[in-house]
Amino acid sequence: MRLHGTHIKLTERSLYSVDVKMSVELDVFVGNTTIMDKEVYQLWLNGYTVNDAVKVRIEGGVMEECEASAEVLLSDTMDQYRTFQMCERLLHHPAKLANQLLFQIPPDRQAMLIERYYAFDDSFVREVLGKKLSKGTKKDLDDVSIKTGITLKSCRRQFDNFKRVFKVVEELKGPLVENIRQHFLLPDQLARDYAAIVFFANHRFETGKKKLQYLTFQDFAFCAGQLINNWTVGAVDNMMEDMDVDLDKEFLQDLKDLKILITDKDLLDQHKNLVCTALRGKTNVFNEMEANFKNLSRGLVNIAAKLINAKDVRDFFIDLVEKFIEPCRSDKLTSIDVNLYLTHYTNSAHILDTFKHHAVWTRYMGVIKSCILRMYHD
Amino acid sequence: MPGRLKAKIVAGRHLPVMDRASDLTDAFVEVKFGNTTFKTDVYPKSLNPQWNSEWFKFEVDDEDLQDEPLQITVLDHDTYSANDAIGKVYIDIDPLLCSEAATVISGWLPIYDTIHGIRGEINVLVKVDLFNDLNRFRQSSCGVKFFCTTSIPRCYRAIMVHGFVEELVVNEDPEYQWIDRIRTPRASNEARQRLIFLMSGELQRKIGLKVLEMGGNAVVGYLQCFDLEGESGLVVRAIGTACTLEKMSTFPATATHPNNSSPSKDMKEPGFGEEAPGVPLSSGPPTPLRAQTFSSFSPSKSYSRQSSSSDTELSLTPKTGMGSGGSAGKEAGPLKALLKQQTQSALEQREYPFFTLTIFPPGFLLHVGGVVSARSVKLLDRIHNPALGNTRSYKLLDWNSFTADEPETRDAWWEEIRQEIKSHAKALGCHAVVGYSESTSICEEVCILSASGTAAILSSRFMQDGPLDTEHRFEEVVSPGCGFCHIPYDELNIPFPAQLTYCYCCRRYKVPDVLFTTIDLPTEANVTGKGCLIQARLCRTKKKAQGEGNAMAISNLLPFLEYELHTQLMNKLKLRGMNALFGLRIQISVGETMLLGLASATGVYLTALPSPGGIQIAGKTPSDITYEQHISNMQKKINDTITKNKEQYEINPPEVVEEIIGSPIPEPRQRSRLFRSHSESSDEVSEIDLSHGKKDAFVLEIDDTDAVEDIHALLTDSPTPAGFYSCNTEIMPGIQNWTSAIQMFTSVRVFRLNANLTNQGLNKIFSDLCENLLKSLYFKLRSMVPCCLCHLNFTVAIPEDELIQVAVTAVAMSFDKEQTLENGKRSGEKTLIKAITENDEQLQFNLELNAETSSPNPLGSPKGLSEVGSHPSARAPSVDYSSFADRCSSWIEQLKLKAHTIRRGSVKTTSSMEKASPLPEGRSRSLRSNRSYSGSSVAVVKMTPLSFIPGAKIIKYLGIINMFFIRETSSLREEGGVSGFLHTFIAEVFAMVRAHVAALGGNAVVSYSMKECVFMENPNKNQAQCLINVSGDAVIFVRESELELTSVQPQSATTQTSNGGEGT
């Protein structure tokens, strides 16, 4: 068995010297039940070297607690690191962990190992979200590491996890989140996050622009969830014939029809009147809303119409911010105002006489509304 | 054709990628037994093949069934070049040969390759049909049960304990054959693994035959060892205790009963078709009859010396003689006559009255004399025979013809040592040796053979003959808690200076001031407080030397080594305020430039023995004031430590007025510096039990640096951290309420000594590294606190110059602290008593028989005792060192003489059966179901070096596990260095043990031990190799809480044991 781990070098002639006269050349501890310390596991996941991990542990006060010496701690840390390295290849295929014979690990421990191995840092994922999970991106990880303060080892693990999940799920049919959960035995929330990451990577959504910096991973993950649940093929057709990863092409095609809302002058005015009637007296920023109506409506409908082009899909979030969120913000709309506006904006369209695309409109605006509301913060 | 072995290959999973192009594997399987091989179809392009083969049937002799393993090889089919081996599985089918053990082997077994380790798993089904064997001249001993456990296995009752069985077989080591130079490391490793499998099988079969001869049906305390003698060969030897066991029928409904109606049942009967030994005793007097069988052997004849052919003769002669006597013997009259003929006790007739047991049925162990040990240094001889040189090694099986004399030599060596042990025991007034074990340490051509045990007097209850003396038996009834401490020797002729007092429990018999033993603490013993692990560690430098000179140098060093180890033990024992050692194991390892000595034992305070005095330091130059101060400081430190230790181990014995009786106190000088003339085989009788003087006046003289070192060593032993206890015995006295959380582990460390060191420097380092290892263990297991590390077994070795290897295997067991504190001792005692009474019920041996046999002859041994008592140990048979060289040369001559004598002519049949395998391609395609194994999770298998599992009841023993693996790598760095390599290997060994146990239907291994861990490295070449040998008993256990639900039978003792927080 080869150990691929790059985390520690155990190949030195001696592991550590106790004193000048003697050095430890080999030091192993194997339990019938594999002993794993959660704290050390986390340090390992965080990419600490053995020596750094020992330092952290000493500072944590474990020594006083257990009457141990630094030497004992070093020995234990190295041993644990080695165990984790040996387990790592199993963690790449979590299902294997349950029916492998080499390590006897209680099920709750197995779950812990998997969950923590696949956990990621929000600050890291923000850096690679929407990027192609390619070798090129991996090469740039050292920059990410410097920027985020997360060790390169940890960055690589997280990146490889994304890539691994992506590769496996890419080939599978059926609901994305469920696939991830079953293949990687992840808890529900983590599976959803991975679904978002895969979804973003697949569509290469732009998330790195300066204007998007204020958005957190959880904001994007929420939006991704909305898109997955409403705009993909799987969302309408539960036959599991296609994957959740791709947006519903037919729907995107239909979105072009919404253009009528802005191209037809009458319709646009009619829409504006309806919305304004409904909003009048209900908000302090009514005048700004009224003044900006055509602009905002054009923005949203144009986004819809462009989504058929993969290139424009990438700019979905930047467009939302530029075309809608920023104007609203400069007019000092509160999120309650935005909610109110969008609610009436969506509903009023259904009352329009000549507007026929109610289903598409609902499907489109439902997602847009919840995405905008989620993204509408400082 | 007494047996049919059937094997079915079901599927594989997690196979390695063998074809780089497709990232897949075209796997097929070869199933081999003896010379017959079957093959499955190739299952193309899959890492999870579903072969679903037919049943491959092998029709074989049961002798072969015992000797040979079933060999399963998984290969990758290659159309154009040779098929690549993926790995192998060796399956020991011995458990299937005994009707009471496993019935089928079925499950996922790791596919193992000596270069790559575990490479996926294979699902197999193996069964054996045994036919009735009417052949009395058979060579097999199918049906004899083997147990590693050194006590009567939990679900059996001992009807008879027959005694010592031993055997050894010798072969050339394939690694040292000329062909090794041209074959691959893999081929060489596999040859070695297979050979050792075969030799183990043969050894077990031969021991089984001896057991049948003795009228037994089982071997308990089976200890098998390998001596890798390098060029001079490979020795596999085993010792054990033959018993007649009967399965207890107190089974819950859940227990699966062995199929008694199967023909294999007959196999377990001894060859002469009288009553089966397992039949209840009421069925007449088979027992005395068998006694006669036994006594009709010539006692001087060693079993081990018989060749396989003469074995048969010997075993049959008395049996046929028995046939006539047997029928007559059914009446009571002839019985008495028979008994009268037995003027000597069976033990006296026995060549070696040795028992490998360490725990005994209640009432079996009457008195304990002390530790007896013997060592001898031997030179391994190369048997070079140029005439045979070329023909060797093509076949592994023909060792019989070439090295026939070798077992003779080795046997003679061991015989010598055993005789010595026997005479030591006699000197202590004992007729038996219990807790007996043997070991070796080899460095180049020098070999130290060691044997040790505890001299004891046993009750005749479990033996065929009359009682040894009724007085002892009577006494034993009176005081089970202290009886074993009472001296067995004559107090007027004490074989060594000892301090005798009246027993502190019963006040009627005399006890020594300290007691050292190699056995476990008897369950019924009265103990004050808790116990702890006590280790004496010693390192001695030695000049590099060759041949006889080297052997001589080692021989000269040994007595000093043992003496110092003993002194250290004694000091440390006193420092802890304790007065007895159990489970004493002294290991001496030899290297090129040093000798290592490690003595481990569990110290306890026996209530029956007097309280140990403190340690007093005496300076030599009282004029110097600073020196005086220094001394008084040290004295204070020591006193403080003793007080602290007494507190920690809860030793507060009731104050009693002491009366000193017995032997005159020797001069102080003599007491602490007692020298004996050491023989080549150093005898350790007197030394071990020698008293270090008067109570309260144990004087350590600081007259040289040694003593200062001693004291430092004493004080540097760091105390066990809070919440931890440790012992090297099965259980810790004073702790009863174990939880079910157990964690077995193995830890190995290798240290490199970087500088030239003095003896003191070495000592310090060696002591430190043992201490540090213990500290690491405590730290690792801190989550289990409060817990006790039980059966801590240290093994030291010197793999090469300047390297010290220490391996530890033990089990950490959690216990319930609350309870200990609250109703601590009382509840403990209660459960103990309960356990004993329960035990007594379970082990009701036939008292009727006892009474009958006990009345007629109370003579014999008392006389022998007094006679023996007068032998001072110094007169124990021994040879002067000066004669050592002579003896060596005489061995060589003897060997030369015998070199051409081929005694064992048994040629294995090579006519192979037709290879019946090739099936038309694709025939079984349709069988390929889409069975998915990915969902199945792995069954938990517990492992423990102890003979029991806390909070659980063992309901069935499935057979012995005895596995030998070699692992080698030529990419050491890539595998994580030496630590990574060994870590993986040990984990793999555990995994394979667990998988085989699970395949037998078991859920635990008890009495597990790692008997060999030989690690060699060559970092410059990026290579390493390791050999590991493990053994244990596969069992099925049921949690007591579950048992209660299913069984009507009331359960006792540890019912409170929580089921939660399970460790393993």
Automatic annotation (TrEMBL), chain A:
Cellular component terms per the entry's GO annotation: nucleus
UniProt GO molecular function: fibroblast growth factor binding
Q: What InterPro entries does its record include?
A: FIBP (IPR008614)
The highest taxon in the source lineage is Eukaryota
Gene Ontology biological-process annotations: platelet aggregation
Q: What is this protein called?
A: Fibroblast growth factor (acidic) intracellular binding protein a
Organism of origin: Cyprinus carpio carpio
List the top taxonomic levels of the source. Answer: Eukaryota, Metazoa, Chordata, Craniata, Vertebrata
Automatic annotation (TrEMBL), chain B:
Q: Which domain of life is it from?
A: Eukaryota
Spans of biased composition, class Low complexity?
295-310
Say yes or no: keyword tRNA processing present: no
* Region spans: Disordered: 252-332, 851-880, 906-930
Keywords from the named record: Calcium, Cell membrane, Cell projection, Cytoplasm, Cytoplasmic vesicle, Lipid-binding, Membrane, Metal-binding, Protein transport, Transport
Q: Where in the cell is it found?
A: Cell membrane; Cell projection, Ruffle; Cytoplasm, Cell cortex; Cytoplasmic vesicle membrane
- Domain named C2: residues: 1-109
Q: Which Pfam families match?
A: C2, YbjQ_2, YbjQ_3, YbjQ_4
User: A single GO CC term, please?
Assistant: plasma membrane
In the record, what terms sit under GO molecular function?
calcium ion binding; calcium-dependent phospholipid binding
Q: Which GO terms describe its biological process?
A: insulin receptor signaling pathway; intracellular protein transmembrane transport; positive regulation of D-glucose transmembrane transport; positive regulation of protein targeting to membrane; positive regulation of vesicle fusion; protein localization to plasma membrane
Checking InterPro entries in the record gives: C2_C2CD5, C2_dom, C2_domain_sf, C2CD5, C2CD5_C, C2CD5_YbjQ-like_dom, C2CD5_YbjQ-rel_dom
SMART domains linked to this entry: C2
This protein's name: C2 domain-containing protein 5
Organism expressing this protein natively: Cyprinus carpio carpio
